[in-house]
């Protein structure tokens, strides 16, 4: 697939008389071309593909990417912290109330039935986990590729997220 794209690009560049295709061997035919510099020098690229093509690294400076990632990460971390505290308080308070009710005699728990239901839920989850694994793997691969393509903004996001959790 990569060779097909390179051949397409070489053919396109030769039509525009900006690249000499009279190479002696196949190795010389596949020269590395920096498309970002080429697109900046030639106006037709923007007319054909638009100004918003390419990864985010081509559109904004490194400082802007770190700032955008940091701000969105901080907001996400701050909300995650606040919502996490509320959820932890609600769940912990619920368990505390159930324990007080159990100790006072208002609630009696059949622990054998609880253990039986938990074991049944474990078996059900194991069946479902095997079916969801391919979807989860593809999501993880897509996320990894996104982070690799946008490493600067992703790094800013992680830093901002950790600062948001700490604030």
TrEMBL record:
Membrane topology according to the record: Multi-pass membrane protein
Any one biological process term the GO annotation gives: autophagy of mitochondrion
Pfam families from the UniProt entry: FUN14
InterPro entries hit by this protein: FUN14 (IPR007014)
GO cellular component, one term: mitochondrial outer membrane
Keywords: Autophagy, Membrane, Mitochondrion, Mitochondrion outer membrane, Signal, Transmembrane, Transmembrane helix
Localization annotation: Mitochondrion outer membrane
Signal peptide: 1-23
Family (UniProt): Belongs to the FUN14 family.
Protein name (Swiss-Prot/TrEMBL): FUN14 domain containing 1
Species per Swiss-Prot/TrEMBL record: Cyprinus carpio carpio
Organism placement in taxonomy: Eukaryota, Metazoa, Chordata, Craniata, Vertebrata
């Amino acid at each position: 697939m990569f060779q097909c794209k390179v051949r397409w690009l070489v053919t396109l560049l030769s039509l525009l008389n900006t690249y000499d295709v009279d190479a002696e061997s196949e190795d010389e035919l596949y020269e590395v071309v920096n498309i970002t510099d080429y697109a900046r020098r030639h106006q037709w690229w923007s007319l054909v593909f638009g100004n918003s093509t390419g990864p985010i690294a081509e559109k904004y400076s490194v400082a802007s990417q770190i700032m955008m990632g940091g701000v969105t990460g901080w907001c996400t971390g701050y909300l995650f912290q606040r919502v996490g505290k509320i959820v932890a308080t609600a769940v912990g308070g619920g368990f505390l109330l159930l324990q007080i009710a159990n100790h006072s005699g208002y609630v009696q728990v059949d622990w054998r039935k609880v253990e039986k239901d938990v074991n049944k839920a474990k078996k059900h989850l194991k069946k479902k986990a095997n079916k969801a694994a391919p979807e989860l793997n593809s999501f993880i691969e897509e996320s990894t590729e996104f982070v690799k393509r946008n490493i600067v903004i992703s790094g800013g996001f992680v830093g901002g997220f950790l600062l948001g959790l700490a604030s």
